[in-house]
Every structure is written in C-alpha cells, then in structure tokens.
Amino acid sequence: MPVVAFSGPDRYLQSTQEGNSGTHAVTAQVSLSAPSLSTVAVQYATSTSSGDQWATSGVDFTATSGTLFFAPGETTKAITVSVIGDTVYEGRESFFINLTEATGATLSLNDTETRNLVDIINDDLSSLPDNFNGLDYLASYGDLAAAFGTDEHAATIHYFTNGRAEGRVADNFNGLDYLASYGDLAAAFGTDERAAALHYITKGRAEGRVADNFNGLDYLASYGDLAAAFGTDEHATALHYITNGRAEGRVPTLIAPTDFMMQVEGVVAHYPSDLWFS
Length: 278
Ligand SMILES: [Ca+2]
Ligand SMILES: [Ca+2]
Ligand SMILES: [Ca+2]
Ligand SMILES: [Ca+2]
What we know:
The chain is an alpha+beta fold and 278 residues long. It has helices at 134-140, 142-148, 152-163, 175-181, 183-189, 193-204, 216-222, 224-230, 234-245, 261-270, and strands spanning 3-6, 13-17, 23-32, 40-47, 65-70, 76-84, 93-103, 106-107, 115-121. The chain is built from ten helices and nine strands. Helix 1 (134-140) packs across helix 2, helix 7 crosses helix 9 (234-245) and helix 7 packs across helix 10. It is rod-shaped. The structure holds calcium ion (CA) (4 copies).
C-alpha cells in the first residue's frame, strides 16, 4: 500500500501573516508515495493545545475536519483551512492540521509527517505609550514627515518597528506651544492641537516656523497670577496664553530670558508662588 503524508517544503511547518480582517486560506499539501489502483481516503482535522502560543478555533482560525479522496492514479491533494484576521495584539498563534486515519493507504509512521504546524504570525501592535500621538511624532521629525506625510498609521508602525529602538520620542512637538508661538495660527486654529500638528507637518516647517517659541515656564515666571493659578502646568499655561493672555497683551517672555531657563524651572518647581512678584 502507498504511504500517505504531508508533502512539499511546508510539510512540517508553515507560517502565515494573520491579517487584520476577513479570512484567508492556508493550504497543506498531502501526497501518496505511489499512485493507487483504488480510491484512497484520508481523514484530517485541526487541533490546538492550551496555552498562550496556541490559536483559538473559531476566533483565530476555523476548525476544519473532513476526508480527502485520492481517485485512482492521483497522488496529491490539498487541505485548506481559514485563518481569521483581527487587529488585536496576541503574539504568535499556532494550530495543527493532522492526518488521522487512512483507507487504502498507510499513514506515515513518522509523526511529524502526519501533522502540519501552522504558525499565525502576529501583525498587530502591542500597546502604545500613553502620550503617543502619530501626528506629533511626525511633527517631531522632519525625516519621518518627509517619508510619511500625515499618515498616522505609518507613523505608528514606524515607531514600533524602528523609532522606539532608535530612541525617538513622540512628544518633541507640542501643538499648544506651536499655537501659542504664532498669533495667526492661534487665530486660525484656536487650541486645536491636531490642526496645529497638521499645519506644522504640511506647511509650518517649510515656512521656517519653529514649534517651541512659546515656553510655558517662561510665561509662568513672568506673571505671578498665572503661577498662582496654574502652578507649573504648562498645558494650562499654553491654553491661557492662546485663549486670553495674548489678547490681554501679556508677553510670554517678560521676565525669563531663555539663557536662564534652568534656573527658572528650578524656581517654578521648588518655590511657592506667593514668594513671587507679579
Ligand atoms: Ca492582525
Ligand atoms: Ca488568539
Ligand atoms: Ca488572532
Ligand atoms: Ca491578532
């Protein structure tokens, strides 16, 4: 009798990208060692084990079983199993396709030839840092903006695949500081940080604008009432300047020359605001 076993280069192990939606098929090839004069039947079924590395049937792939029939003279058939895409980070997931019983042929005695391991390769991102924002990341790096424009998804993928290892950070750009730095932008965009990042990526950088003319700590150091109200909250401070301070004629750098920033930061951080003059 012929011997039946998985065959082809992927007969022991095959891998497939998970995908993010819908399903796609993986195929395992099965062959007879020689043609048969009568029909050969081989049963097959998927299986998993418990544990993190294993896929879940019905969720990660569609449990599949059935019988392959080789007509007389046929020596090769294929089993197809559906892999289910999703966008959840799960790491690698595996399942087996097993040949379980044969009629008119003998199952290979080599176990590894009667089970095909399918590895579903993760293509989803693990969690992002809380402060990660794709647009701010693009705005922070001219080379990335040149490569990816305003594509936040591409930015996120870059961060995971390269940027993180390169030591890049997502928050070199601060939309509020940018809006606070330019009256025309604040007039156009108010306090919309997303619009600010989009403007900087698509126009502002090319116009030679800088993202950090405004420094919240300078502004706080310049006005005792603001320091009393906001402490060292630079976000609130930038909001104040955009929504009120500029219209009130306040000057963000009234007191603190940039050269003395380190000292100012120390003062702001360590002394109660009632010691300040306004
Ligand atoms: Ca996926
Ligand atoms: Ca899973
Ligand atoms: Ca999955
Ligand atoms: Ca997944």
